[in-house]
Q: What sequence folds into this?
């Protein structure tokens, strides 16, 4: 069965002979097979180990793929970008064009063995401290037997830098 087949398969076999056949009703046989689809979708997220608050733009690379064996239908990537990543935007064409990130992206159907790369970027807020934990999740309407690889996270250490100086003038 092909990977993109959905629903029910009907198969009919017919036999004929040049010899007279008095029982034509048994010359045809049909069977119906329900086709179950299974697709192991996955997500792998990569990002910077550290970033400077108020200065650095973080770029997250997110790869969404389908191990198969069936076509993954209605694939959706979700990523609730932390509040300390300002003005998040995404690209699906290697950074040629950017769009406002709204938290999820419908990737449509994904064939077995194929993957899509999505980039998300944003400026680290000057108010950020400690670590920023960012998680991506992928789902599909096709049954997925292995959910452990549907989530991927990146932790970025936030560095703070201050250029403090003093100027003293004598009268």
A:
């Amino acid at each position: 069965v092909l990977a993109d087949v959905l629903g029910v398969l009907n198969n009919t076999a017919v036999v004929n002979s040049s010899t007279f056949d008095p029982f034509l009703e048994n010359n045809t046989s049909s069977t119906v097979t329900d086709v179950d689809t299974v697709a192991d979708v996955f997500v792998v997220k990569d990002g910077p180990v550290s970033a400077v608050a108020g200065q650095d733009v973080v770029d997250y690379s997110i790869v969404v793929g389908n191990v198969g064996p069936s076509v993954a239908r209605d694939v959706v990537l979700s990523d609730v970008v932390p509040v300390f990543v300002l003005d998040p935007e995404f690209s699906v064409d290697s950074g040629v064009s950017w769009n406002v990130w709204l938290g999820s992206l419908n990737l449509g159907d994904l064939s077995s063995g194929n993957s899509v790369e999505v980039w998300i970027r944003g400026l680290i807020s000057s108010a950020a401290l400690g670590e920023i934990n960012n998680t991506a999740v992928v789902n599909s309407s096709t049954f997925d037997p292995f959910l452990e690889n549907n989530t991927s996270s990146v932790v970025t250490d936030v560095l703070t830098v201050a250029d403090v100086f003093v100027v003293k003038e004598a009268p």
